[in-house]
Amino acid sequence: MAWDEATKWAQGDLSQPLYQHLLDDAMEKPERDSHRKKIVKPADMPWEMSRQGLLKHLINEEMNTRMETVDVYMQIIPPGSWSGKHRHLAEECLYVLEGEGYDLHTDCDVEITDTYHWRPQDEEKRFDWEAGDVIYIPPNTIHQHFNANPDKPVRLISAINRIYKYCGLNDLEQIEDAPEYDPSVVLNSETLNKYLG
After folding, report:
1. What value does the mean pLDDT of the chain take?
2. Alpha-carbon torsion 180, 185, 188, 189, what sign?
């Protein structure tokens, strides 16, 4: 044999057309995409009473849309209430559609080696916002949104990149639930009204 190490790398009887699968997938993608939504109507955007709060999903990978890498939802925070508190590795931005309030953020020190470790820093920072502002959530920051108005709800649009998940870093941790969270509640446009004040 021409190479000395051939006795090692030439071992094995397993044969699979893995490269061909990539080619097939690439060729079939246009047909698959032709059945995925480019326009999502409000009636097709699911409501969710989540641990993070009241959500209406605009774009989500489970909604069969053409969006490959970004998830977007609208969050509604009832008068005087607040969201859940969570942390994730992906950065996030939120556009304040209406209302006023503030965020509490705690940065975390992170170490990613063979394992993943994070530790909250001691300082909690407050950021005030109002309609028209964009809230930026840095990667791996513990954060929570508060509605400062006791009479009117807040509406936020959240966008987060799901590419971290595809890279094996789907690090999402719920630290505290929103006060409205009740897994038995089924949200729809009618039941939502009771949370709007």
Report:
1. 92
2. negative
The single-letter code of the amino acid at 54 is L
Residue closest to 158 by CA, chosen among 72, 68, 45, 59: 72
What pLDDT does residue 20 have? 96
Ordered by where they begin, the domains of the chain are 44-195 (2.60.120.10)
Does the global pTM surpass 0.85? yes
Q: Is the dihedral of CA 178, 153, 107, 166 positive or negative?
A: positive
Determine the Cα angle at 47 with ends 165 and 182, to 5°.
90
Per-residue pLDDT of 122-160, as tens digits, reads 999 999 999 999 999 999 999 999 999 999 999 999 999
- CA distances from residue 49 to 36, 57, 63 in whole angstroms, order as listed: 26, 11, 17
- 32-37 long-range CB contacts below 8 Å, 24 or more apart? 33/66, 35/64, 36/64, 36/65, 36/66, 37/63, 37/64, 37/65, 37/66
Our CA angle for 129, 109, 134, nearest 5°, is 20
Q: With contact defined as beta carbons under 8 Å apart, do 163 and 117 qualify?
A: no
